Amino acid sequence: MKQKIRKAVIPVAGFGTRMLPATKSIPKELLTIVDRPVLDYIVAEAFASGIEHIVMVTGRMKAAIEDHFDHAFELDTSLRRNGKDAIAEALSKDVPSVGAMSFVRQQEAKGLGHAVWSARHIVGNEPFAVMLPDMLMVDSEPCLKSMIDIYDRHGGNVIAVEQVDPDLAHKFGIVSLAEGNDGPLITGLVEKPAPGTAPSNLFISGRYILQPEVFSYLESQKPGAGGEIQLTDAIISLLGSQEIRPFEFSGRTFDCGSPAGFVGANLHMALGRDGVREAVLEEIKLYEAGHRH
Ligand code: UTP
Q1: Which residue's CA is minimally distant from atom 27 of ligand 1?
Q2: What is the model's pLDDT at position 283?
Q3: How far apart are CA 175 and CA 266, in angstroms?
Q4: Where are the strands (E) in 67-110, listed by range?
């Protein structure tokens, strides 16, 4: 019998150097998309996909993340005293139920693979999800839910992939595929292939369902690209003994860890929000008409 996917690991211990100076004292995962931290969207995707427990891998300077997912007693009291009960109610609905979120410190930012490995004691011996919090994935069905559906049918491991412009493939982790007995299987992964050598135009986009054996590969993993312990390297080791299926995500993905992706996500969400859309469209109109100062 297949074990249910109950836990999601969300690594939030990186430095966010691409978003400096914003991330000098603010975790990049709390930068806002309109008026909500990007991490809120990822947590909502996890719970909407049936996840019961989230393990946040945090680090120094990330204490604000724990506070964000806790009740803010003084704020709540003050809002209610001022008749703003509706706002207080909305805030308390966002707080996960008691015990549904754990926090573990990575202590040293040694790479994504090391961050995932830091969660091993809380995950235990069961398959689990990994969600990159700066990859905002927007679709009518949550990306992770679609992946869990594939897992429920086949078991094994599942990785979300997406089409990339072949001219940009050298910037991403690219998969190679082969047709299996019951659908496509991932047969290889290569981080940032030299231009013109990418084995496909599908890149790994930020959601994984992994079997717990990945922890033993991470345990003995030597630092790879950039001197970091790479999750990709451990997944390559898994390929020898386990099936890994692709889920081709066809919604919109925004890399909110980069200025262009972050602004794109804000524009996308703002244009979908009544009361905000109008001001954004007006600003674009003014800018295009030459009112730039
Ligand atoms: P990134 O490489 O996108 O995050 O890792 P980063 O290192 O913070 O960003 P840059 O490249 O310096 O701008 C993907 C996710 O993995 C986490 C990050 O917080 C991010 O959410 N991460 C990365 C860790 O938790 N620990 C690490 O050692 C590295």
Answers
A1: 111
A2: 94
A3: 29
A4: 101-105
Tell me the helices (H) and strands (E) count for the chain, helix number first: 11, 13
pLDDT for the residue numbered 237: 92
CA 139 – ligand 1 centroid, Å: 24
Mean pLDDT, consecutive 10-residue stretches, the chain (293 aa), reads 93 94 94 97 97 96 92 93 94 92 94 96 97 96 98 96 92 91 92 89 96 94 82 91 96 96 97 96 92 80
First-residue to last-residue Cα distance in the chain: 64
Measuring CA to CA, which residue among 139, 144, 167 is closest to residue 252? 139
58, 134, 208, 233, best to mutate for ligand 1 pocket (most atoms within 8 Å of CB): 134
Instruction: Give the pLDDT score at 153.
Output: 95
Per the structure block, which two tokens stand in for 292? 């730039």
CA 44 centroid distance within chain: 11
Which one-letter DSSP state was computed for residue 95?
S
Tokens of 173: 């982790």
Which stretch of DSSP H or E encloses residue 58? strand 53-58
